[in-house]
Amino acid sequence: MATGNINVTAENIFPIIKKFLYSDHEIFLRELISNATDATLKLKHLSTLGEIKGDIGEPMIEVKVDKKKKEIRIIDQGVGMTGEEVEKYINQVAFSGAEEFVEKYKDKVEDSGIIGHFGLGFYSSFMVADKVEIFTKSFQKDAKAVRWECDGSPKYTLEEIDRKERGTEIVLHIDEDSKDFLEDSKITELLKKYNKFMPIPIKFGTREETLPLPKDAKEGTEPEKITVDNLINNPTPAWTKNPKDLKDEDYKSFYRELYPMQFEEPLFHIHLNVDYPFHLTGILYFPKLSKNLDPTKDRIQLYQSQVFVTDNVEGIVPDFLQMLRGVIDSPDIPLNVSRSYLQSDAAVKKISSYITRKVADKLTNLFKKDRKAFEEKWDDIKIIIEYGMLSEDKFFEKSDKFALYPTVDKEYLTWAELEEKIKPIQTDKDNKLVVLYASDVKTQHSYINAAKEKGYTVLLLDSPIVSHLLQKLEGAKKDVQFVRVDADHVDNLIKKDENKISKLSDEEKEKLKPIIEEVIPKETYTVQMEAMDSNANPFIITQPEFMRRMKEMQASGGGGMMGMGNFPDMYNLVINTNNDLVSEILNTKTKKKQERLIQQAFDLAKLSQGLLQGEELTNFIKRSFEMVK
Ligand code: ADP
Ligand code: MG
User: Fold this and answer.
1) Is ligand 1 within 6 A of the CB of residue 519?
2) pLDDT tens figures, 436-494
3) At what angle do helices 591-608 and 506-519 cross, to 10 degrees?
4) Separation between Cα atoms, residue 35 and residue 33, nearest integer Å
5) CATH no. of 2-205
6) Contact 198, 231 (CB under 8 A)
7) Distance set, CA 494 to CA 189, 474, 497 (Å)
8) What homologous superfamily is domain 503-541+568-629 in, according to CATH?
9) Ligand 1 within 6 A of 307 CB?
10) 131 CB contacts (<8 Å, ≥6 apart)?
11) Which-ligand-closest: CA of 78?
């Protein structure tokens, strides 16, 4: 038997390990199971290389909890360690790993920016145990089994023991503060959280299974019950497989495996698979976005070689794709660094832009392969796509191939198709292409109808970030302007070089304008004289596109709108100089009657826009009754 001192600079590192990463004590299990997995994978590898003779069987990992003895055991049938290897890998390597780790992060205990605390490794067991034993026997011929023990001080003992089975058994003597980990339910929870998809089968306890009754069973026969190993994990999750070997149904069932509480099926999936210049696999799903979507639930999960790390993929997956679901797995993502570092890491940036590109390619393919099906999905995916167009320039460029612009009549047009369709009649006198859109078919019904009667195409753009997107499109496309159908009278939506004849002369117009301005609130309404169709209403209220969009952008946040104060509501009051009522107002001799006519016409214009409310509405009704009396 040998005893020794673990070579440390810090006199006693264990109290530090214990205290620190307080909330993350649970990772000890993940670390020990990762080690057991590594040892088993090594064994399998050596066996395929022919360096181990004979059958290695189906090695698995077992976790055992003894509540009375306050012990947790992690048992593997992997390569094991010789005495020298324990000296080297546990006393020196693992220890230096732990030391380095503590050194690096001791000031950052509270830094929630650290994701996954990989690197602490074997010594994380001292976060929950006051004594740790290792029983191990190497696969090597004639290797002697050894037992190592350490009670959390820098002293350890190492002795030869009798043990026949190849592999390693770690025994944790759980300390008072960590008793919770002796609950079966706690261990099951942790195994399901971190090890659900690890590559070696993990057994924890047993469970009863009822066998189906044989066909010829007599009536009243009790079905037979058997006890089977309770296996925790699926060692070959879908993302580790070749996409060629998977059917649509396999992807769907993997989705259910990932999110057992999700009952809605995903719309489609994207299988990620790169080897160069970094390693990354995974499957992303486009979910059907419902209104009561909880963004903190069922998020994308990040794995490192099938070990769960986190479901906060901020910085790794571009923002606009964080509404997706699924998994990504990469050994190349540095995990024990802060998020701000992560975002500036070159490898991580490449991963993020790779994912963006893959998603764009997949969307292009889906669109090309089955346009009809793609159109049916559009309303469910448009938010994600529009957000991506806004936030990622690369994605914006690619989106021209698949982004759709639906009309109010549910015709889904690409940008090129839209341009071709509307160019002939929706180009204005300055050669700008005017794209008309509505945001709500019900409240804008009359405007939509009027535009359609003129032969215009009206899009239905109703997502919350649309005003930002239009701004972006106007900046990127040449000579394009988006105008909402209710931004002006239909005759003015697209300004052409038509000289319309006005019944009122310029002098008459100049005379009328101040008379009207005296009656209406000037700070909110700008009076405009327009020669329109004589059948068109005399007074029309419109909200200029620019004003409305600014207000919307401010409401939905971002776009440099912060701190600019609140935009006031501003409208245009368009006076149709060809309508007879307008001539009548001008020619009314009594001032009082003139004011009443203006007020009444103004209120009617407001009424048609839903702007007449409260006291104004009451007064209007009263006045109207008096007028018909
Ligand atoms: P890491 O896993 O990052 O190398 P650890 O501190 O977790 O760091 O482990 C240190 C070393 O101890 C491992 O690299 C391995 O050589 C050895 N080791 C730990 N656990 C086992 C095990 N169950 N079987 C065989 N070797 C192990
Ligand atoms: Mg390890």
Assistant:
1) no
2) 999 999 989 989 999 999 999 999 999 888 899 999 999 999 899 999 998 888 888 89
3) 80
4) 5
5) 3.30.565.10
6) no
7) 63, 16, 10
8) Heat shock protein 90, C-terminal domain (1.20.120.790)
9) no
10) 149, 150, 151, 152, 173
11) 1
